[in-house]
């Protein structure tokens, strides 16, 4: 195996703990496994970001002889250590469950009839998620202050929070207590937080070394669990692939003070493409005063332009949003090509009970609505206002989908299902959002034009926060680095010049 000098430096490092900033496709997993092989005397835990990465890593391990290395997700570790099988688990807190809980609590404890607004319940849900992902222990004003700093809140939600601080802190405690006592289903981040709070269980893991993958996207509570261990640590990730702040992920590579190593060469695409992409993105990162990208590639050929995509061969369509994906999808459903969705068709907000419910809300056929949360709205305009206030992008995408295609959504769904294959190898076109494509690669990529542009960054009418601009540029970078041979890049409007007349 031919290793780069950067890889050799890491594999032969004498540092006990360190961090690695690795660009997309730079062989970070292989580097970590070779580092583990170099240290056969250590009992090693490899923390994978999610289950699918854990499975792919275990496949890769077949080529290495590493009896001293175990692979797990941090949630799986917490699940077993804390006995999370004792909880009733759910992937998402339902607002109607929170509503019942809050109403009952206020009636029984304060002898008051209290009916929280949908905005209040959405805020409560978000704060419960935030608490479970942060490293704070107390549920107090400090929690709310940290939440405000890390969240991009609308004026309406901020006003609700400021006017109800004491009440909402009480309600957070009630929700967490109800999860613990199995009165309501617990989210997976809840047992992770319980694991962190149980110092006896979480501080004595039997390992000499922990390798933490995707370190740019782990939460503060995950960082705290790792940092509480009395062992060596290696954090590896890519600061430019930090795209999960909506899940309260924070970049451990920036937060942890350890010696730094770098993997700047991608084995996925050509050096000429790497430099072209580096220059394009750095032009916009510099506007946001962000640290610049350093990206290198192979001595090969990766072409830029739609004319280089051979549509007689399989290609992948990557969009920023599900609505951007459906717009591109509609262009292809008459071509009779076989289509595949990363993560499965049902995981996209195209046609499910939520879409049906919002469609019937628009039709004012409220008796046909099956989603409890949507039953609380009289009109689709009310729901849209709520979605904007709470930054619920799923609802906004669905509303845009329904407003654009109307009754045709049923015919579109029918045509998609007729062309759908469940085996990726059989597909002519693969459809995915950037978040679902993370960690994957494709021969040919077509990026949909729904990513951030220079015009969005300079827009003074609707200014974006520093954090939002940075993450949107990172999302573009993740999509653009999935390619091997040919790509149509989304337009970044590099030549756009802002004028005062637009303001």
User: Using DSSP, what is the number of strands?
Assistant: 16
Global morphology: globular
Low-pLDDT windows of residues: none
CATH A-level architecture of the largest domain: 3-Layer(aba) Sandwich
CATH homologous superfamily descriptor of the largest domain? P-loop containing nucleotide triphosphate hydrolases
What's the story with the biggest beta sheet? 6 strands, parallel
Distance between the termini: 56 Å
Strand content: 5-15%
Radius of gyration: 24 Å
The number of distinct helices, counting runs of at least 4 residues, comes to 23
Going across the major beta sheet, what is the strand order?
A: 3-2-6-7-1-8
Helix percent band: 40-55%
Mean pLDDT: 92
**Structural class based on helices, strands and sheet pairing:** alpha/beta
CATH class call of the largest domain: Alpha Beta
GO biological process, one term: double-strand break repair via homologous recombination
GO molecular function: 3'-5' DNA helicase activity; ATP binding; DNA binding; hydrolase activity
Binding site for ATP: 22-29
Pfam family, one: UvrD-helicase
Describe this structure in words.
This protein is 46% helix and 14% strand. By secondary structure, it is an alpha/beta fold. It has 3 domains: 5-82 and 197-263, Rossmann fold (3-Layer(aba) Sandwich); 89-184; 266-337 and 428-497, 3-Layer(aba) Sandwich (Rossmann fold). The strands form 4 sheets. The chain has a 6-stranded parallel sheet. It has a 6-stranded parallel sheet with strand order 11-16-15-12-14-13. A two-stranded parallel ribbon has the order 4-5. The chain is globular. The mean pLDDT is 92. GO terms for molecular function: 3'-5' DNA helicase activity; ATP binding; DNA binding; hydrolase activity. ATP binds at residues 22-29. This is DNA helicase.
């Amino acid at each position: 195996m031919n290793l780069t000098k950067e890889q050799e430096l890491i594999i032969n490092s004498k540092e006990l703990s360190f961090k690695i900033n690795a660009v997309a496709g730079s062989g970070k997993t292989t580097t970590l496994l070779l580092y583990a092989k170099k240290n056969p005397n250590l009992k090693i835990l490899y923390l994978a970001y999610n289950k699918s990465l854990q499975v792919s890593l275990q496949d890769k391990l077949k080529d290495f002889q590493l009896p001293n290395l175990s692979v797990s997700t941090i949630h799986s570790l917490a699940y077993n250590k804390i006995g999370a099988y004792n909880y009733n688990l759910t992937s998402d807190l339902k607002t109607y469950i929170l509503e019942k809980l809050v109403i009952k609590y206020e009636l029984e404890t304060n002898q008051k009839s209290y009916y929280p607004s949908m905005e209040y319940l959405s805020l409560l849900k978000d704060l419960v998620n935030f608490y479970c992902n942060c490293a704070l222990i107390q549920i107090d004003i400090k929690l709310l202050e940290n939440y405000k700093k890390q969240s991009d809140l609308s004026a309406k939600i901020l006003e609700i929070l400021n006017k109800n601080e004491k009440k909402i802190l009480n309600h957070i405690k009630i929700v967490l207590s109800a999860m613990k006592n199995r009165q309501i289903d617990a989210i997976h981040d809840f047992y992770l937080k319980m694991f962190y709070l149980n110092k006896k269980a979480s501080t004595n893991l039997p390992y000499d070394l922990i390798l933490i993958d995707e370190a740019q996207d782990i939460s503060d509570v995950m960082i705290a669990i790792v940092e509480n261990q009395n062992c060596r640590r290696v954090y590896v990730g890519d600061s430019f692939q930090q795209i999960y702040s909506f899940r309260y992920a924070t970049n451990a590579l920036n937060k942890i003070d350890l010696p730094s190593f770098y993997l700047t060469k991608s084995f996925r695409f050509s050096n000429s493409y790497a430099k072209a992409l580096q220059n394009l993105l750095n032009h916009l990162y510099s506007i946001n005063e962000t640290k610049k990208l350093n990206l290198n590639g192979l001595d090969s050929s990766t072409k830029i332009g739609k004319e280089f995509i051979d549509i007689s061969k399989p290609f992948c369509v990557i969009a920023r949003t599900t609505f951007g994906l459906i717009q591109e999808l509609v262009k292809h459903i008459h071509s009779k090509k076989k289509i595949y969705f990363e993560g499965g068709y049902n995981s996209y907000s195209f046609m499910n009970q939520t879409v049906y419910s919002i469609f019937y809300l628009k039709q004012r056929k409220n008796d046909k609505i099956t989603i409890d949360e949507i039953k609380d709205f009289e009109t689709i305009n009310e729901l849209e206002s709520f979605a904007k206030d709470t930054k619920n992008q799923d609802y906004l995408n669905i509303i845009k989908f329904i407003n654009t295609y109307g009754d045709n959504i049923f015919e579109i769904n029918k045509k998609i299902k007729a062309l759908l294959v469940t085996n990726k190898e059989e597909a002519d076109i693969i459809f995915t959002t950037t978040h679902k494509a993370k960690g994957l690669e494709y021969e040919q990529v077509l990026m949909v034009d729904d990513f951030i542009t220079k015009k969005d960054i300079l827009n003074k009418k609707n200014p974006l926060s520093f954090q939002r601009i940075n993450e949107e540029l990172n999302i573009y970078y993740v999509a653009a680095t999935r390619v091997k041979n040919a790509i149509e890049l989304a337009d970044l409007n590099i030549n756009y010049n802002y004028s005062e007349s637009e303001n």
